[in-house]
Write a structure and sequence with these properties.
The complex is a heterodimer. Chain A is α+β, with helices and mostly antiparallel strands. Chain A is 15% helix and 40% strand. Chain A has a domain at 33-83 and 98-136: Immunoglobulin-like (Sandwich), CATH 2.60.40. Chain A has a four-stranded antiparallel sheet with strand order 1-2-8-7, with no helix packed on it. A three-stranded antiparallel sheet of chain A has the order 3-4-6, with no helix packed on it. By secondary structure, chain B is mainly β. The chains are: A alpha+beta, B mainly beta. Chain A binds chain B through residues 4, 10-11, 14, 18, 22, 26, 34, 36-37, 40-48, 50, 52, 54, 56-60, 83-85, 90-99, 122-126, 128, 130, and chain B through 21, 23-30, 33, 36, 38-43, 62-78, 102-105. Strand 5 of chain A pairs antiparallel with strand 1 of chain B.
């Protein structure tokens, strides 16, 4: 009993500390925020040709993950089934930190994305959504005549 | 003998490297303990699970398909390594641990030693 409480608190503390460290470095929050600390955790990166979103949602059946892109807003939603057996006298749950249930996260993407160039794949519990940027928005070298 | 001393030499270095603490579920039933750990992004070949004495350590490193020249614009997962250590109790049979990894979820089964499993003792009437 004591040990399970202790490890959960320690985990929460580390998580909070990590989040505070991150927010200190975040200079450009979006108007929709980014629901920090939500599930799944998100990493977003950009290349000159695409916006890459990584959602850390392990243990999912890929066909049940809903990925929607509507007017520049990317929504990732799904439901994670509880892996725990029905509790009875013979089983004891010592630590329960993993999320189960429905989740949903929303990311607003830059203006220059191409809604037709979206691909998503799920590997090792990470959903990777790649959204192409419009060609007109990509940096070009202009020849001086 | 050689391998043992190597493990000991390597341990302090790996301990110092910062790592994420993966969330886990631990369930005990009459025959053993089942542990589930969320390790998204870790492929099977970058996962290590080891028992040293009564310590069970799981460690994994992510291998994300990062496109070349990508700049992170928002990051909630800032480390690429997971590590967590558990102390096993005596009645658990560390020799018979089995583990499987599926979609970023590690499932570890640690059975209890035969002598620690509950038995029904029949009462003889004389």
């Amino acid at each position: 009993m004591y040990r399970s409480l202790f490890s959960r608190d320690l985990f929460a503390d580390l998580d909070r500390l990590q989040r505070e460290m991150q927010s200190a470095f975040d200079f450009s929050p979006s108007i929709r925020g980014l629901g920090r600390g939500g599930y799944p955790a998100l990493n977003v990166g950009t290349t000159p040709t695409a916006v890459e979103v990584f959602a850390f949602a392990p243990g999912m059946d890929p066909s049940t993950i809903e990925v929607n892109l509507d007017r520049g807003v990317l929504t990732i939603a799904g439901e994670r089934k509880d892996a725990l057996p029905a509790s009875d006298e013979k089983t004891t749950l010592h630590i329960n930190e993993r999320l189960s249930g429905r989740f949903r996260r929303v990311v607003s993407l830059p203006d220059d994305i191409d809604p037709n160039g979206v691909s998503a794949n799920y590997r090792e519990g990470v959903l990777h959504v790649s959204v192409k940027r419009r060609e007109s928005a990509q940096p070009r070298r202009i020849t001086v005549q | 003998m050689n391998t043992v001393s190597q493990v000991k030499e390597n341990t302090p270095a790996t301990r110092q490297e910062p790592a994420l603490l993966p969330p886990v579920d631990v369930i005990e039933d009459t025959t053993g303990i089942t542990l589930y750990a969320d390790l998204p992004g870790v492929p099977k070949d970058r996962l290590s699970l080891r028992v040293e004495g009564d310590q069970l350590t799981l460690e994994g490193e992510m291998a994300l398909p990062l496109p070349q020249g990508m700049e992170a614009s928002h990051a909630e997962v800032t480390l690429s390594r997971y590590r967590r250590t558990f102390t096993l109790s005596k009645e658990l049979d560390a020799e018979k641990v089995n583990a499987e990894l599926s979609h970023g979820v590690l499932r570890v089964r640690i059975p209890k030693a035969e002598h620690a499993q509950p038995r029904k003792i029949s009462v003889q009437v004389t």
